[in-house]
Design brief:
With about 200 residues, the chain is mainly alpha-helical. About 75% of the residues lie in helices and about 0% in strands. It has 7 helices and no strands. It is elongated, with a radius of gyration of 21 Å. It starts with a helix and ends in a 6-residue tail after the last helix. This is Pectinesterase inhibitor domain-containing protein.
């Protein structure tokens, strides 16, 4: 490779890194990174919310809403995936029962996250006891959704359940549980900030 080609390759690499750095140093990106520090899976939080469309503004309510949307989308995908596993040929009786239980768990999760999104979306202009009641509903439903996801995975505990079905379900549902955990942390953060006297956004 000629020296000129090497020069242009290095120049392109420098500009690419510079552009990448600029794209992650916006006020919105800094806001997301700072807020995600309050979550258990902070890297996953930043990854999910940085790529969220429409872009998240510097609003804790909008950020929590976006996190719930990510969680709901993944829960719906996981619920559909688990339902298909119940129809595969050769599934063991114990696996089948665990899958059926998981289908119910994930169905409840989807319902709880859907209600949470609707409730949080209606909180743009509420205050006082109305705010406390609504945010308590959201916290309760998201917490229940997380419990249901963990209950689904608990159904496959033990070596007797080892196999492709267990691996496939745990991979999908574990990811759901992680993003739901993050969403709950961001909802709690939004609630605490508001009760401390900050604005709804």
């Amino acid at each position: 490779m000629s020296k000129l080609n090497i020069f242009f390759l290095l120049l392109f690499s420098f500009h690419y890194r510079l552009h990448a750095a600029d794209s992650t140093s916006t006020p919105e990106a800094a806001f997301i990174k700072a807020e995600c520090r309050a979550t258990r899976y902070s890297a996953l939080c930043v990854q999910c919310l940085s790529n969220y469309t429409p872009p998240v503004q510097q609003s804790q309510r909008q950020l929590a809403q976006a996190a719930l949307s990510v969680s709901l989308t993944r829960a719906q995908s996981a619920a559909s995936f688990v339902s298909k596993l119940a129809r595969i040929r050769g599934i063991k009786p114990m696996e089948y029962q665990a899958v059926k239980d998981c289908i119910r768990n994930m169905g409840d999760t989807v319902d709880q996250l859907s209600r949470s999104m609707k409730e949080l979306g209606a909180m743009t202009r509420v205050a006082g006891q109305d705010f406390d009641w609504r945010v308590s509903n959201v916290q309760t439903w998201v917490s229940a959704a997380l419990t249901n996801e963990n209950t689904c995975m608990d159904g496959f505990r033990g070596s007797v359940m080892d196999g492709n079905v267990k691996v496939a379900i745990r991979r999908r549902v574990l990811n759901c549980a992680q993003v739901t955990s993050n969403a709950l942390a961001l909802v709690n953060r939004f609630a605490s900030r508001h009760k401390a006297g900050d604005s709804l956004d």
